[in-house]
Each structure stands twice: as structure tokens, then as C-alpha cells.
Design brief:
Keywords: Cytoplasm, Hydrolase, Protease, Serine protease. Its main location: cytoplasm. One of its GO terms (molecular function) is serine-type peptidase activity. InterPro entries: ClpP/crotonase-like_dom_sf (IPR029045), PDZ_sf (IPR036034), Tail-specific_protease (IPR005151), Tricorn_protease (IPR012393). Strand 12, helix 5 and strand 13 form a beta-alpha-beta unit. The chain has seven helices and 16 strands. By secondary structure, it is α/β, with parallel strands linked by helices. About 25% of the residues are buried. About 25% of the residues lie in helices and about 20% in strands. It folds into two domains: about 80 residues, PDZ domain (Pdz3 Domain, Roll), CATH 2.30.42; about 220 residues, 2-enoyl-CoA Hydratase, Chain A, domain 1, CATH 3.90.226.10. Helix 2 crosses helix 6 and helix 4 packs parallel to helix 5.
């Protein structure tokens, strides 16, 4: 037995009876056509049991997985119907809620910036999230002037340097292919890259390798940080020490220090350029002042940005010194043809000689 999830988020300000749907998680069971439930509808009962108390609500969702649940649902015009489906695990619901939150943030950034900026979130510093980061640099960044990179609640990993390679590529040349436009051949690189402006969002739950990424962005002056100071928990560990059959122990083995001033990153979180703490009630209400500030800062960065690839290109054929000047020399004396007559003086001289 375990506590199952319906793939629904409820309005906690609603006093009852039942539960009022605030959000339907995309990809969840209530988002499917044959078991569709909509926002602002009321869940009256579960398997015939009324949801008229906190205890009844908890008991209703304590069941076996893969067991069909029947909900009595009332719409805003008081029509009642029964919806049946298999609920999902809380772990799956957390994944769906996170993806819905990311999608909402992408919509907010697009709305606040007039679709000039893109948004992407990095959940962890691991291979799967790195591959997603690289893919979204292209898919979300395409046609955008700047990107908001969100590492809030990122607990770390090991891929910060791989991400930095995609954001800080040395710009040494621009190419112009036949019948194309100025660019750089991606086949020459081991990663896709983004060299336009960025702003990084961080918070008190950004930890370990996520913090290393934030420190690097600040040290390299690649972009601004917005949010609150990161956790200050930067140290490499391994978990090979076993306690017989009761678990494992993590052992610290590598410290991280900032290259410019030698300060230990442990207990020394990355400090944002713009500190924004959420006010009570803002997060449940869906208001994100950190995200709003990131958009404001990034729009200003984009206006001031000078793209090195937009310099005026000067083909070799257009340079004044590209055509070699040939020095004009006097022509050599014209050779006489064999059939030409010799001068009269020379002919007469030969005739008078003995």
C-alpha cells in the first residue's frame, strides 16, 4: 500500500465540500481523453466515499498501485459524472509537476519579453540533463536574443564544465558558405554552443556542482546571477564505505576553491548580482519575482550586446591591396625581320671594301 496521486493539484483555499481542481498535470491520467478532468471542477467522492474531512481525503488515496479509482466529479454548472482510471505514484506526479512548472515558466518568459528570450531549466548536473541542456540550447534558443538558464533547486552532479564549454566557446573566426549566411560549421565542434547573452537563476537550494556552475558564470563575467545566495555545500564525495548490511557512508575527498581569491566554495555560496527573496504566499500563488527580474536584466543585456560575429566581413577580393600592381617597364627594341632590307649606308660600305 502507498499514497497514490491523481495527477491533479487542488485549490487549498477551497473550503469544500470535496476538492476543487486547480491544475491538471499534462501527461497525467486526468489529462487523457477518456478520463479527462478540468480545472475548477469538484471531486466529490472517491470510490463512493465522500471527501468531507481531512481524514477521509487521506484515506481515499491510500491504496495499492494499479488499482482503478472511481471519482465523482461535478462541473461548474453542477453536472455530475463518474471518471475511472489508474492513479500514478507520487514520484511520477513530481516529474509531471516539474515539467508543468518549466512549461509555465517558458510561457511567462515569452510573454514578459515579447518572445525575444528563451527559458530552460537544468534539474541536475548529470548526463541526461546535459543532453537535454544541449538540445534546448538549439531548440529553445533558436531565433532568441537571450536565454534565462534556471539552476534553482539543482542539487548538483558533475557536468558544470561541459555546460560551460557550450556557453564560452572561443570565437576566433566566422565562416560564410556559398549560397549561405554567416555562421560557424557545427561539425567542427564537439558541442552545440550559445554565445548570446544569458542570465542564470539560482537559489538557496542550488548546491554542489550547480553552485560551481554559478561561481564560474560570475568569475568569467559570462552573465548575471539573479535569485539568492546558493547553499554553500561544494565538496566532492564518494560512497564506497559500507556499514556491513545497513548502508553506505559518503566520504569527502576533494575541496573546491575559487581561482581568483582562493576562497573555499564550501560554506561560501555564489552571491547573485540581484538578490530577490520570494515573499510569503507568492510561490503557491504562482508569482515568481526572481524570474521577472531575470527577464528585466536579460532584456537590458541584449540591448547592450555586441555580437562579435556581426562585424562587417571583408572578402579578400574587396581589399584595395588585393590586386598586384605590375610595374610598367620600357619595351625592348624591336627585332628586325630577316626579310627587312639593311640600311643603305651599311650596304654601300660593304661594297667598297676590297
Amino acid at each position: 500500500w502507498e499514497t497514490v496521486h491523481l495527477g491533479l493539484l487542488f485549490d487549498h483555499s477551497y473550503k469544500g465540500p470535496g476538492l476543487k481542481v486547480k491544475k491538471v498535470l499534462p501527461g497525467g491520467p486526468c489529462h487523457k481523453s477518456d478520463s479527462r478532468i478540468y480545472e475548477d471542477e469538484i471531486i466529490l467522492s472517491v470510490d463512493g466515499n465522500l471527501l468531507n474531512s481531512p481524514l477521509a481525503r487521506r484515506q481515499a488515496f491510500n491504496r495499492r498501485m494499479n488499482q482503478v479509482v472511481e471519482l465523482e466529479v461535478k462541473d461548474p454548472v453542477d453536472n455530475v459524472r463518474v471518471v475511472s482510471f489508474e492513479p500514478i505514484a507520487f514520484s511520477k506526479a513530481r516529474e509531471l509537476a516539474k515539467e508543468a512548472w518549466i512549461s509555465d515558466n517558458q510561457g511567462k518568459v515569452g510573454e514578459l519579453s515579447g518572445n525575444k528570450l528563451g527559458y530552460l531549466h537544468v534539474n541536475r548536473m548529470n548526463w541526461d540533463d546535459l543532453e537535454r541542456f544541449e538540445a534546448e540550447l538549439f531548440s529553445i534558443g533558436y531565433g532568441k536574443q537571450g536565454l534565462v538558464i534556471d539552476v534553482r533547486n539543482n542539487r548538483g552532479g558533475f557536468t558544470a564544465d561541459h555546460m560551460l564549454k557550450m556557453l564560452m566557446r572561443p570565437v576566433h573566426a566566422v565562416t560564410f558558405p556559398r549560397s549561405g549566411k554567416r555562421s560557424y560549421p557545427l561539425g567542427y565542434l564537439d558541442h552545440y554552443f550559445w554565445d548570446k547573452p544569458i542570465v542564470v537563476l539560482c537559489n538557496q537550494n542550488t548546491a554542489s556542482n550547480g553552485e560551481i556552475f554559478c561561481h564560474a558564470i560570475t568569475a568569467s563575467k559570462r552573465g548575471k546571477l539573479v535569485g539568492v545566495r546558493t547553499a554553500g555545500s561544494v565538496i566532492s564525495i564518494y560512497t564506497d564505505e559500507k556499514f556491513l548490511d545497513v548502508g553506505k557512508m559518503s566520504v569527502p575527498f576533494r575541496g573546491w576553491f575559487k581561482a581568483r581569491d582562493g576562497r573555499d566554495m564550501e560554506r561560501n555560496g555564489a552571491v547573485p548580482d540581484f538578490e530577490i527573496w520570494p515573499k510569503p504566499g507568492e510561490v503557491p500563488a504562482g508569482k515568481d519575482r526572481q524570474l521577472e527580474k531575470a527577464v528585466e536584466v536579460l532584456l537590458k543585456e541584449c540591448r547592450e550586446f555586441k555580437d562579435a560575429t556581426l562585424v562587417e566581413l571583408e572578402p579578400a577580393s574587396a581589399r584595395p591591396d588585393s590586386v598586384q600592381k605590375v610595374e610598367q617597364k620600357p619595351s625592348p627594341p624591336k627585332q628586325r625581320q630577316a626579310s627587312e632590307k639593311k640600311p643603305k649606308e651599311l650596304t654601300e660600305e660593304k661594297e667598297t671594301n676590297p
